[in-house]
Amino acid sequence: MDDRTGDFSFLPPSLRAERLGEIAVLRLNRPEKRNALDDPTVEGIEAFFTALPEDIRAVVLAGEGEHFSAGLDLSELAERDVFAGIEHSRSWHRIFERMQFGEVPVVAVLHGAVIGGGLELAAAAHVRVAERSAFYALPEASRGIFVGGGGSVRLPPLIGVACMMDLMLTGRTLDAEDGQAIGLTQYLVEAGEGMAKGLELAKRIASNAPFTNYAVMHLLPRIAGSDPAAGLVIEALAAAIAQGDEEAKARMKAFLQKRAPKVVRS
Predict the structure, then answer these.
(1) DSSP of the chain, one letter per residue?
(2) Active-site residue set
(3) Residue 8: inside a domain
(4) Is the pTM of this model over 0.85?
């Protein structure tokens, strides 16, 4: 990738990307397959996040066509034995973790089908915006399989173990309003407004101090999963590092001198 031009030509045809200043937009580009995730697509996601230019500050992830992603391309399961299945699942774990614990926050814009592996991919993002067309499901049980892209780790903190059990055992489908109500998404917008909202949020995120974004992405989830005493120590260290940063000092000075905006109701 060329840092100056944002050349994403190394990506497979199933992905399309562009650069908008400090924001990179990555789109799943298999609309004829409802953006089902095959190996070249998932490996391309890893390549994209590995090769992001240093001056990109946030990413928006979306899907082309009528759907975000209908999940794993099941045609790829036909010839896998157990060991190959384990290796395949672990590769998804590595790749989605590269996104979740990468260099910059990711805003996922969801519409249409957000199913199975597509939902697992969305769960690896940091902020999720849903259009009212979005619907969610985990149909693995009806296919005789189990989640393999990190869903059993990332989804329960968002929606709870009981809700995930329900989705998997009964094949229940949640609509966009349901997903918003249970905490799967943070924002709900009308049809066609998802990308604009995603870009608005990404620009807001990009304006933050880089270390603060890093701490939110890397430390906050680990603090939440640790015992309280360890979490408080990590928090204290992060707070001290953040306030000691030269950019943080300049921002605080600007605020105290009334040169920075105050928090108001949105």
Answers:
(1) --TTTT--TTS-TTEEEEEETTEEEEEE--GGGTT-B-HHHHHHHHHHHHS--TT--EEEEEESTT-SB--B-GGGGTT--HHHHHHHHHHHHHHHHHHHTSSS-EEEEE-SEEETHHHHHHHTSSEEEEETT-EEE-THHHHT----SSHHHHHHHHH-HHHHHHHHHH---EEHHHHHHTTS-SEEE-TT-HHHHHHHHHHHHHTS-HHHHHIIIIIHHHHHTS-HHHHHHHHHHHHHHHHHSHHHHHHHHHHHTT-SPPP---
(2) 120, 140
(3) no
(4) yes
